[in-house]
Here is the input.
Amino acid sequence: MSTEPRTDTDARARTATPVIDDRATGISLKLQESVAIIAYDQPQSPVNTLNSRIGPVFEQCFARIERDDTITGAVLVSAKIDSWIAGADIEELTHIRTAQEGETLSRNGHVLLDRLAAMRKPVVAAIHGAALGGGLEVALACRYRIATDHAKTVLALPEVQLGLIPGAGGTQRLPRLVGLQAALDMILTGKNIRAKKAWQMGLVHELVHPAILREVAIARVRDLAAGRTPPVKARVQSTTDMLLEDNAIGRKLVLRKARESVMQKTQGKYPAPLAALDVIQHGYAEGAEAGQREEARRFGELTVSLVCRQLASLFFATTALKKDNGLPEGVTATPRPVTKIAVLGAGFMGAGITGVAVQAGTQVRLKDASLDRLATGWKSVRDVLRERLKKRQITRLQMDETLSLIGGTTDYRGFGNVDIVIEAVFEDLAVKHQVLHEVQAVAPNAIFASNTSTIPIRDIAGAAARPDLVLGMHFFSPVHKMPLLEIIVTPATSPATIVTAVQYGRKLGKTVIVVQDGAGFYVNRILAPYLNEAGRLLDEGAKIDEVDAALTAFGFPVGPITLLDEVGLDIAGKSGPIMAAAFGDRMLPSESLRRVVESGRVGRKSKQGFYRYDESGKRVGVDETVYAFTPAGATRQSVAAEEIQRRCVLPMLNEAVRCLQHGIIRNARDGDIGAVFGIGFPPFLGGPFRYLDTLGLPTVIEQLDALNARYPGRYEPAALLREMAATGRRFHP
Here is the structure.
């Protein structure tokens, strides 16, 4: 950690006349006495990205540094606020049409960064903000890396999240720098590494305060040029690490275990992590140069893969949503600031909402009927924060300050100045009407948001004095992990109420979609037929574990029967009749689910559902006694996985189209995001609408018609689906 005093060199560097100033790319080179300052400030972009246009300009900078004897070395900096280089230009990657084009792009990156790594004059990466993907690969090619000890400074190779592998040498440089196991953890997960952790693992050499980053970097260039050894944090290797990583046999074992873990987590649906393992192994076996050739080849193949295209589509969709205020085109409104909210109900969902709110810096008034329930809710929030403390994501002081934002109450004291009230009480319309009356009496100007999962918001708002302030904010469980927030609006909800809720949802770190009111809204509406069909398979004698296994093999994170146990059979039991009342027989819950709910089993939280659980709550297997509640009894039969998948997934896709047809969702983009982020629809398929496009609408209709002939009324294709198939249209261009 450097403590060198600040000087005025930074100011002089900023005012020096550029030697190179390429306005098209935003790359400039200025001289700070004998040190070149290469700054990147991509025009018309909030962050710097890597694209095919910047390579020649960087080459020009490198050539100038090498041939000018008055220049001793260079510092590479970003001129953006709180961002270094955020990776490749994803838009440019989507224009690649052949694997050869992708391979050439990767090879060009190798040439540029090999040139940087081979420079005889030192180049120091001065990193403040996000150094992601290709940005981190640029830093890895520099001789020395300094990072700011700041919350905004994170380093990562997130390419696998887009169905890619690092393509500019990252698969070869990173393992040799930080060790194989640490590199695999970064490359196979794409997770962010904070600055201090990066320093501890040897990813960066030094940490400094942002105010002195540039002058310290200049000093390090001079040290390196003069042959002086700057501060370096040596990577600490345990005996086990050395045994595993410093010989071919140990590395082979590490790579084999990593491959087994990837297959277990992904079912082989994502080719990028497996490709990364192949490339890393090839580099160790044949050398870094051969490893780079293999990296470029596999990168090229992945850029044109369907999985990459689908994951990229989700990236662009979430990016577009961040700019969407949730209002119809042409309608505008100004969101009100939200600094204090109230949460009604300190149960599982209420505590979860409170937890994300206080972590976003919001003061929360948490209300419940008893002090014991308030204490339990507070403990739930504390447990989440303790986990973050354990992972060193926050300090003890930050944890204490966050918890201090919670104020508990058994009455409505303190509600007079809240901006939003979020109710998370029982799924009972009379109870919701009661709390709505009470809230609007003490906080008449506060937005009233219901966290109901199925009850139509218009039914709740029917009891409101100010229906313009009523909407739904449907969080998903567990709140601190699930990324989606569904904002449900009625015709009476005002534009200002909508944009305030959307803006606040984003402040909580959620991906927000706005949907129109209706039973189940969007996410739970498309989930209902999926769960119902799983239950009907049990009615007919299918095995619980085989139904779940078929759907996890399809790509869902958990199977539908497991999901019922996790959510709670009592909750599913209440929502089923609401959906059936709204949509008729095609949404009737299965007989098996109805009987199991009536038996009193509620799932994992009571350690008794479709599965058995030990005292710690860990699942230990199917509870065979539950079959006694099903129409088929104990007699079970195997059903082909493809049959299970078709029967459960097709009605979900069909219902998603109905939601679009009826205006519940605004567009196919929101429908894809809602399904992927809300219920774990397989991301590699891009969402229900992109998957429909991939399958082909005529094929889907043919399959639905065949199933509808066997099970009349449950699989009738949506009118919009037939219309689009007949006219050759797609949901996405």
About this structure: The longest helix spans residues 641-661. The radius of gyration is 28 Å. The mean pLDDT is 93.
